[in-house]
Amino acid sequence: MKKMSALSAYFSHSGNTRVIAHQIHENIGSDIFEIVSVDPYPSDYDEVVEQARKELSEEYRPKLRTKVENMESYKVVFVGYPVWWGTIPMPVATFLTEYDFSGKTIVPFCTHEGSGLGRSVMDIKKFCPQSTVLEGLAVRGSNVKNAQDEVSGWLQGLGVKKER
Ligand SMILES: Cc1cc2nc3c(=O)[nH]c(=O)nc-3n(C[C@H](O)[C@H](O)[C@H](O)COP(=O)(O)O)c2cc1C
What we know:
By secondary structure, the chain is an alpha/beta fold.
């Protein structure tokens, strides 16, 4: 992959995925963007687990508070999220439907506590059938602070170079 204009977009509820998004940003000099829902999710674990289950089963699309103004300028969009119920959280589903990703390369990355990427990459492909969706990276949430080498090795494997 040659020099490109890349965005590292992420949703994070408790901060793990944010750490990985910043590692990507620092590694390749991509822009960075946080996907934030208008209505915040509860911080109580049981409450957010139940809300996420309901939103997934109802295919709910929460409204987002943040917007990428120049999406057309990015060829590569890293999309990061915690795995929720085996797939992407619904704010990420909203994000994928709000922009035209056709012709772009989407690079998934997630944090999780055991299920790896789960069904998330398959679901991203369903939302973005006209995009090239690459192999994703899965990092254990409890291990994000030690993941720099894993992240840079993965980026090297993808052939992504640092932007100037
Ligand atoms: C609502 C909810 C659902 C989750 N579902 C899964 C799951 O299906 N598989 C898994 O491995 N971890 C699951 N987790 C754990 C998170 O993916 C993990 O803690 C992640 O690192 C959190 O990232 P964040 O700090 O960026 O929000 C779930 C967590 C929450 C809050």
